[in-house]
Amino acid sequence: MKPTIGLTTCLRPTEDVHHRVQQLLAEEIIHFVYIARKKKGIEQLQQETGLPVLVVDKQRLDLYPLGEKTSFFFHPSSAVFRIKQIDAGGGDPLVAIGRLSEGMRVLDCTLGLGADAIVMSHAVGDSGQLVGLESRIETAYVVKQGLQRWEESYAPINQAMRRIEVRMEHHLAFLKQCPDDSFDVIYFDPMFERTVSESTHLDPLRTLANYEALSAETIMEAKRVASRRIVLKAHYESPLFDQFNFERQRRKTSKLHYGVIEL
């Protein structure tokens, strides 16, 4: 079922902003209801319409969930310095534990804000494949738009973003449709209440996150679809590492640990 969202402009829209609004209204992924801004605040627009509001700004889309004053928007975030660090000869823990290299096929089952997907896309390069799944349509829509339009001054980051294929699907439903060994690596970064509460940069995602825990059926399907390994990132207190027998890579400087199942 398509969500219904109010669509409006920033307070001082340019011709490009108005053009973008018309483009979004013509799409069929989300049911947009156009709201004339008329210098009204976001809270007032939400109260008048009873809808979450998507604001088309000059550089980005800002999604304000109903009742929220903080917007959710796309930004490559940590992917920027992580990719620059990789290209300068440094390492990245996700790339290392996934043993990612040029030409590999990667499935990110929990796309979220997309930072990890961007790094993995960079690692597998032009000849590789990065598919990102996000079950919340609103989240997936904003991130997909951002991945295609955001501009960084460092070209490899832009190239990595553009290569990502965003699919608005639940990971279990997607995995069930995949043939055996469709991907080399499958990645999970499930959202937990504790993870979000301890990570201020995730504040805008609080009301849009999918907090559903990984199921045994999901891991079983992932073992069938992945040809090399399954990688998990989770809070160090997460029971998932032991529950599904992930070999844990502990990180003394982070509350987020990685785990891997070699196939």
Task: Explain this structure.
With 263 residues, the chain is an alpha/beta fold. Helix content is 35%, strand content 21%. It is built from eleven helices and eleven strands. It has helices spanning 15-26, 42-49, 79-87, 93-98, 115-124, 137-149, 155-163, 171-177, 193-197, 216-225, 240-243; strands at residues 4-9, 31-34, 53-56, 61-64, 105-108, 129-133, 165-167, 183-188, 226-235, 247-249, 256-262. The strands form two sheets. Strands 7-6-5-8-9-11-10 form a seven-stranded mixed sheet. Strands 2-1-3-4 form a four-stranded mixed sheet, sandwiched between helices. β3 (53-56) and β4 form a beta hairpin. α3 (79-87) runs parallel beside α5 (115-124) and α8 runs parallel beside α10 (216-225). The protein is globular and about 55 Å long. The model is unreliable at 193-201 (pLDDT under 50).
Summarize the structure.
The chain has 263 residues and is α/β, with parallel strands linked by helices. It has helices spanning 15-26, 42-49, 79-87, 93-98, 115-124, 137-149, 155-163, 171-177, 193-197, 216-225, 240-243; strands spanning 4-9, 31-34, 53-56, 61-64, 105-108, 129-133, 165-167, 183-188, 226-235, 247-249, 256-262. The longest helix has 13 residues, at 137-149.
